[in-house]
Design a protein that fits this description.
- This protein is α/β, with parallel strands linked by helices and about 260 residues long.
- The chain has one domain (about 5-255).
- The chain has 8 helices and 13 strands.
- The protein has helices at about 65-75, 90-95, 130-135, 160-165, 190-195, 210-230, 235-245, 250-255, and strands at about 5-10, 10-15, 20-25, 50-55, 80-85, 100-105, 110, 115-125, 140-145, 155, 175-180, 200-205, 245-250.
- Strands 5-4-6-11-12-13 form a 6-stranded mixed sheet, sandwiched between helices. The protein has a 5-stranded mixed barrel with strand order 3-7-8-10-9.
- α1 packs parallel to α6 (about 210-230).
- The longest helix has 21 residues, at about 210-230.
- Residues about 1-45 have low confidence and may be disordered.
């Protein structure tokens, strides 16, 4: 089926197989380009693995933020893998269960009238993803504000991708912080991750501007580290209310 792009009320809408995914994101980024990459590192068995996934680094780099997040995770005892730009790939998202804490700095969006939310990778869209789109695993994702540099259209992951393509199970008390617009507009992505043993999913049900997101992420990570250590989520739930994030407790929301 050919792809179509139309203009509706001044908004760019991408029709990929029968899915419309909008991403309302981004004002500006701060800092220089972060150059470190750890992919499939050889890791010690005694330390937890943690990941930073920055799908916005090409268009909106923030070196200072990434270094701060990495330092926090290392102080918490993690061995940290950092994935930037196109290295924030589908394969990385398939392996989220390798990690105890995942911090994402990404585009988020939703389809149609908001029934289904999606998370953008850093991978440019191409025709080779059409088969996955037909399965309902991915969609063509177009940021609402065109990026000043880098790709303009990305592969966006839908809830079914996490349910069907993600391998393994999360470690005990694993936490995912999905920093981006609409990453918790619905609970479908969280539910898919919860089914893989996730403990807490933290996302944003509405828009969040990038300059604010970059200020909020370290606070959420600090609270997440404390919550995991203490087994008490009351502080991060309160913080979530203050910053406009939704904290989903997988155990509480489990229907099993």
């Amino acid at each position: 089926m050919p792809q179509k792009r139309v203009i509706i009320a001044g908004l760019v809408v991408s029709l990929a197989i029968s899915a419309i995914l909008l991403a309302y994101h981004i004002h500006r980024g701060l800092g220089a380009t972060y150059t470190r990459e750890n992919n499939n590192s050889t890791l010690g068995a005694t330390k937890p693995r943690c990941a930073i996934i920055d799908g916005l680094s090409e268009a909106y780099p923030n070196d200072y933020l990434l270094r701060s997040l990495e330092s926090m995770l290392k102080k918490a005892g993690c061995i940290v893998d950092v994935y930037r730009g196109p290295n924030a790939s589908l394969d990385v998202f398939k392996r989220l269960t390798d990690y105890t804490i995942v911090v994402m700095r990404i585009h988020g969006g939703f389809m149609g009238k908001g029934q289904v939310a999606g998370i953008f990778t850093g991978v440019p869209w191409s025709r080779k993803y059409v088969t996955l789109a037909r399965k309902g695993y991915v969609a063509e994702g177009i940021p609402f504000y065109p990026p000043p540099r880098g790709p303009k259209v990305f592969v966006a992951l839908l809830p079914k991708f996490f349910a069907r393509e993600m391998k393994g199970r999360f470690p005990s008390r694993a936490i995912v912080i999905a920093g981006g617009c609409f990453t918790a507009k619905t609970t479908a992505i969280a539910e898919s991750l919860c089914s893989k043993g996730l403990w807490l999913y933290i996302g944003f049900p509405k828009k969040i501007m990038l300059n604010r997101l970059d200020k909020v992420l370290p606070k959420l990570l600090s609270a997440a580290i404390d919550a995991r250590k203490e087994g008490d989520i009351s502080v991060i739930e309160k913080l979530g209310e203050q910053v406009g994030a939704k904290v989903i407790n997988c155990a509480k929301n489990s229907h099993s």
